[in-house]
Amino acid sequence: MMMTKDKPTRNMALELVRVTEAAALAAGRYMGRGNKEKADKAAVDAMRLIMNTIPMAGVVVIGEGEKDEAPMLFNGETLGAGDFPQVDIAVDPIDGTRPLANGLNNSIATVAVAPRGTMFDPGPFLYMNKIAVGREAKGVIDINAPVKDNLKKIARAKGADLEDLTVVILDRSRHAGLISEVRACGARIRQIPDGDVAGALMTAWPDSHIDVLMGIGGTPEGVLAACALRAMDGNIQGKLVVRNDDERRRGEEMGYDLDRVLTMDDLVSSEDVFFAATGITNGDLLQGVSYFKDGARTDSLVMRGLTGTVRQIISTHRLEKLAQISPIHY
Question: Is 108 helix (H, G, I), strand (E, B) or coil?
Answer without folding.
Answer: strand
